[in-house]
From TrEMBL:
One of its GO terms (biological process) is iron-sulfur cluster assembly. Residues 91-175 form the SUF system FeS cluster assembly SufBD N-terminal domain. It comes from the Archaea. Residues 178-412 form the SUF system FeS cluster assembly SufBD core domain. This is Fe-S cluster assembly protein SufB. InterPro entries: Fe-S_cluster_assembly_SufBD (IPR055346), SUF_FeS_clus_asmbl_SufB (IPR010231), SUF_FeS_clus_asmbl_SufBD_core (IPR000825), SUF_FeS_clus_asmbl_SufBD_sf (IPR037284), SufBD_N (IPR045595). Belongs to the iron-sulfur cluster assembly SufBD family. It comes from Ignicoccus islandicus DSM 13165.
Amino acid sequence: MKSSYSILKYYIDEISKKLKEPEWAYKLRLKAAELYDKVPTPPWMPEDFDLEAFAAKAAQEEFVKPSEDQIPEWYKTILDRIGVPDIEQSMLAGVTVMVNENVVYEAQKRELRKKGVILKSLDEAVREHPDIVKKFLHRAQTPESHKLAALHVALRRGGTFVYVPKGVRVPFPVQAFFVITEEQLAQTEHTLIIADERSYLHFIEGCIVPIPAPYSVHLGGSEFYALTGSRLRVSSLENWLGEVVHVPVKGAEVHENAQLEELGVALGGIRIGMRPKIRLVGKGAKVSYNNIAFLKRRMSSWSGSTVIHEAPKTRSSVVNRSVMKDQSFEEFLGEIIVKKDARDVIGHQACNTLLLNDGAKNVTIPKLVSEVAEADLAHEGTVGRIGEEQVFYLRSMGFDEHEAIQMLTIGFIDPLIQDLPADYVRAIREIVKMTLGAS
């Protein structure tokens, strides 16, 4: 019987050779493979997970990046389906689309290049910008966390790299979309974003399956670094069709007087596991992490986050809002940890759940840990149904019951998405409406 390490090393060698990556990147993969059997198994890992089959799928795609005039019509159709405006006429800063694991198109505005912003595939960045990438890659998202984290580091391929130089403010959103088009596909892209000192960036990433897939695994990863005095906004939108297992691994660092604002919206799929670790490592660092999930049928979700306050005067806010129906299940684990060198700390987390019927189940587990007295930590949680009085009022205004439930559900999540571009707010609302109308 093959060992986990031998299985992983075989496919690591294959991936690394195709990517022509440097020795240091190859060694990161081998370290993760060595850890795979030593680290814990997360509760959201599928019980029937086949390591060799997953690794084979992660390694099998060819690395072909066509030129702009070679973009096929099926690709443009996918963009239309996920609501990305026509690339040539778009006012967006940049669009990077990755179908399966391959980056097939990149559109950059001239302004980005003039400002020195680097936007390219992570595979290219590993080779072309090792001085930057080596310093940050897998520092916030490490293989030691659990088996899926180790597996992602070992088989990482594709994804987006964004570097914003010191003092540069990008006045328009930069976007990346990841698309699964094949059944039984394992996707392991990695997003690495670095906002250097006093810079500003809003990054939007979307992950979709445009057609129902009986079984696919999305084991993407992301790392966000907000360096001294910077402000980094990240909005992640996922809309999965079919039996997709969505188990991304994420990490972030926020430095002195920097601010990270992260929003995640997860719609669809069959199994979701996502608990990022966010470290506040500099004095005055702030993080706002908001997550929205819509769970139906027999979907299972393990949500939450771990926020670690490592410096004085740091602030954190975590808000999780879930809409649940049918026989869906969610476990929210929210951790706020204050280290001994952190003073005058404020940390707040909230888990708000809207149950649309009997049978759906939510479990909330708050964990507040402080090594100092000068910490103000709080947790709040609510689980409830849509009020009959609210429905009655809307019906008296001429709406039917279904329309009333749609409006109240959208009103429940709207406070967290209102700062997104208008096109995205409309798209999320429409997807929620369609989901409420589905059985």
